[in-house]
Design goal:
70% of the residues lie in helices and 0% in strands. It starts with a helix and ends with a helix. The chain is mainly alpha-helical. The radius of gyration is 19 Å and the shape is globular.
Length: 272
C-alpha cells in the first residue's frame, strides 16, 4: 500500500478523532457516528492507495489528486459530531476581542456596521471560499505542476485540520448565531441568502477556531503563489477578502480570521 501525503494526513486525522470520540463526553450516538464517519474516511483513503493496481495510472492519479477535496468535508463533520454546546468563557473572550479591536464598527455580536455595498461585496467573496480550493488545485495542474499536488494537499490539509481539531476543545457558536432573533441580512442580496442556506443545511453549527475557511483558502493560495505569481496573487486577494468577509459578516470572530491567516503562513515557511 503506497500512501500519498494526503492519504497519510487523512488517515491520521480520522483515526485520531475515532479514538478521541470513544472517550469524549458526548452522547453515545454522537460517538458512534463520529467513529462511523472516520471509518468511512479511512476506507476511502485505503481504496485510493490501492487504485494503481486496479485502474490506469492516469485515472488513479486524477482520483487521488481530487478526492481529498471531498474528504475535507468528511473531516469537518466528524469533528462536528463532538460539538454539543459552547464554552461561555471562551465565547465571551472572542467577543471581547471583537469589541476592543473593531471599535466603533462593532454593533454587538452579530452586527459590524459597514456600508451596504461592502456587505454585498463581502458576501460574494465569502461564497467564493467553496470553489476556491478546487480552483487552485485545477490551475496548479493546468500549469503543469502536477508533481506539486502532494505539497498542495500537505499544506491545505494540515492548516484545515488544525482548525477542525480544536472544535470539540474550544467550542463556540459563530457570532451570527448568538442572538435569538437574528437579522438574516436580507439587505445584503442573494449571496447572503445563499450563504445562509448553505450553512443551515451543510454546516456543523459550530465555530472553528482558527477559521478553517480562511486557513484552507490561504494555504491553497500560498502554494499557487509559489509556482505562479500572477494566479497566486489573485487567489491571495480572494483569501484576504474572505478573511475580511468572515469577520464583517459575522461568520467568524476577528481572532478566528487572524489566526486563520497566520497558521498557513507559518506552516508554509516551515515546509521544506
Amino acid at each position: 500500500m503506497n500512501l500519498s501525503f494526503a492519504e497519510i494526513i487523512n488517515i491520521s486525522y480520522f483515526s485520531l478523532f475515532c479514538m478521541i470520540s470513544i472517550f469524549f463526553p458526548v452522547p453515545v450516538r454522537r460517538r458512534v457516528s463520529a467513529c462511523a464517519i472516520g471509518a468511512f474516511g479511512i476506507a476511502v483513503c485505503i481504496f485510493l492507495s490501492s487504485l494503481p493496481s486496479l485502474v490506469s495510472g492516469q485515472t488513479s492519479r486524477a482520483l487521488r489528486d481530487w478526492v481529498p477535496a471531498g474528504l475535507i468535508l468528511v473531516a469537518y463533520h466528524q469533528s462536528g459530531r463532538l460539538f454539543i454546546k459552547p464554552w461561555p468563557k471562551f465565547q465571551t473572550w472572542l467577543m471581547g476581542w471583537d469589541c476592543r479591536l473593531l471599535g466603533r464598527f462593532y454593533r454587538g455580536p452579530e452586527v459590524i456596521q459597514v456600508p451596504s455595498f461592502w456587505r454585498k461585496y463581502l458576501e460574494i467573496f465569502y461564497l467564493s471560499c467553496y470553489p476556491l480550493i478546487p480552483a487552485a488545485l485545477g490551475i496548479l495542474i493546468l500549469l503543469n505542476f502536477q508533481d506539486r499536488v502532494e505539497e498542495f494537499w500537505m499544506l491545505v490539509l494540515s492548516s484545515t485540520y488544525a482548525c477542525y481539531a480544536l472544535v470539540p476543545f474550544l467550542p463556540a457558536l459563530p457570532p451570527r448565531l448568538l442572538q435569538t432573533e437574528r437579522k438574516t441580512g436580507s439587505n445584503s442580496g442573494k449571496a447572503r441568502i445563499l450563504n445562509e442556506w448553505l450553512l443551515r443545511y451543510g454546516s456543523i453549527k459550530a465555530n472553528t477556531f482558527p477559521s478553517a475557511h480562511v486557513a484552507s483558502c490561504t494555504a491553497a493560495s500560498l502554494v499557487l503563489f509559489r509556482y505562479d505569481t500572477w494566479f497566486g496573487a489573485i487567489f491571495l486577494w480572494f483569501s484576504l477578502s474572505i478573511a475580511t468577509a468572515v469577520v464583517i459578516r459575522r461568520y467568524h470572530y476577528l481572532a478566528d480570521a487572524i489566526l486563520g491567516l497566520a497558521l498557513p503562513v507559518v506552516l508554509f515557511f516551515l515546509m521544506p
